[in-house]
Write a structure and sequence with these properties.
With 407 residues, the protein is an alpha/beta fold. The protein contains 15 helices and 14 strands.
Length: 407
């Protein structure tokens, strides 16, 4: 058989991943959703399990995925235009729902224009392919998401044209800018708004101030790019994300509809010129079918909800539950990384203990993510909890009660 030799080689790679501790466990399969009832929030059923589970590992910060208005909007759009576009965007695959979502997200993040992608991952790749050239220098935070790192590689950024600064270290950022050579026309400083494993945020205001000191050194300036996938919708007084929270507006915003907004897809928001150049040059936009009209209609509705009284109430409850959980961890004497974001890590600092705690929570019907060596350095092992707006006070109390039990 043609694949026998390849299979043999790949099987060894899988064994190596397992032995190194980097193999991912089998994927759990969700079989059902149980809406909030009484004092408890939503629960989920899993294939092969009799009990119901409380998800503390979901990016759906505003709990909008099952909102009846989103479901109805997706249904109407599907009946109007079908389940798929039938073509890429430039070959008549653009529907009014695509352009409507682009206009809506641009208004939401206060940028002149936006272009939607199938994910924030492909948006990051598309941006790198669009604005990078032989005279571009890239600078990033050392804890940047994989999609930013991979985008640099896909765009073919040479090692001599990029710098990495220590996490949120503004002096290190200045040193990176000082090190940029004279043959560079543009510098791109790119970073996560919310660092998804830690729940802390980039000081966008400070980064903008530093960039302003260097802009005149380069023909095309210093461009500030933030991937705020975990911030938008879930952070800031009105859900405008890290920019709103920190008081600084980056030049380009990359985001997702797949977290707080509860749907699918990503976007780039910037000037009209940048967005048109994305449309012309970004391979990850040009050569793939777009989001379904159902996704677009649901995402547009999610943005409308975020801008309503209901959205403000969801944000308010999200902040309350996050504060409740963080205060409870402190009472239990458990270590976390401070911050108001609903990503709340619990630092365990031991691989075996992290695995045992994740299993302990699972046995009590609670789903969390454990991060252990070598995915994180030895001593940084942790569990990541993610608070959602549909979590109730009773839900958080239950999680804290289970965390407080001896195992």
């Amino acid at each position: 058989m043609p694949l026998e030799q390849l299979d043999k080689a790949l099987q060894q790679e899988l064994i190596d991943l397992h032995n190194e501790g980097r193999a991912k466990p089998p994927e759990r399969v969700i079989t059902g959703y149980l809406p909030p009832a009484g004092r408890r929030g939503p629960r989920y059923t899993l294939q092969g399990e009799d009990k119901q589970f409380l998800r503390m590992n979901s990016n759906a910060y505003l709990s909008l995925a099952n909102h009846p208005q989103l479901i109805a909007a997706a249904d109407r759009a599907t009946h109007a235009c079908g389940v798929g576009p039938g073509a890429v965007r430039f070959i008549d695959g653009t529907f009014i729902y695509h352009t409507g979502l682009e206009q809506r997200i641009a208004r939401f993040v206060d940028k002149p224009a936006a272009k939607i992608f199938n994910s924030a991952y492909t948006a990051n790749c598309g941006l790198a392919l669009t604005i990078g050239n032989k005279a571009t220098y890239w600078i990033g935070d050392q804890l940047n998401h994989n999609s930013i790192i991979r985008a640099m590689r896909i765009a073919g950024v040479p090692s001599g044209h990029k710098g990495i600064y220590a996490h949120n270290d503004m002096d290190a950022l200045r040193r990176c800018l000082d090190a940029v050579g004279k043959n560079i026309d543009r510098v791109v400083v790119i970073f996560d708004g919310i660092f998804s494993m830690r729940g802390d945020f980039a000081p966008i205001d400070a980064i903008l101030k530093i960039a302003s000191d260097y802009g005149d050194r380069f023909r095309d300036g210093v461009i500030i790019v933030v991937d705020d996938s975990h911030g938008l919708g879930a952070y800031g007084a009105t859900g405008r994300g890290t920019a709103e929270f920190s008081g600084g507006s980056p030049d380009i915003i990359i985001g997702t509809f797949g977290k707080a907004f509860g749907v699918n897809g990503g976007f780039i928001a910037a000037s009209a010129t940048v967005v048109e150049t994305v449309r012309q040059k970004a391979d990850t936009y040009i050569y793939t079918n777009p989001l379904s009209v159902a996704d677009c209609a649901a995402a547009t509705t999610a943005l409308d909800i975020c801008d309503s009284d209901e959205g403000l109430q969801l944000l308010k409850n999200l902040r309350r539950r996050t504060e409740q959980f963080r205060n409870g961890l402190e009472r239990l004497g458990l270590e976390s990384i401070p911050g108001p974001h609903p990503v709340v890590p619990v630092m365990v600092r031991d691989t075996a203990k992290t695995h045992a705690l994740v299993r302990h929570l699972y046995d009590h019907g609670i789903l969390v993510v454990g991060l252990t060596f070598p995915v994180v350095p030895k001593g940084d092992e942790s569990m990541r909890f993610q608070i959602n707006a549909a979590h109730t006070a009773a839900d958080i109390d239950y999680v804290l009660e289970v965390l407080g039990k001896d195992i």
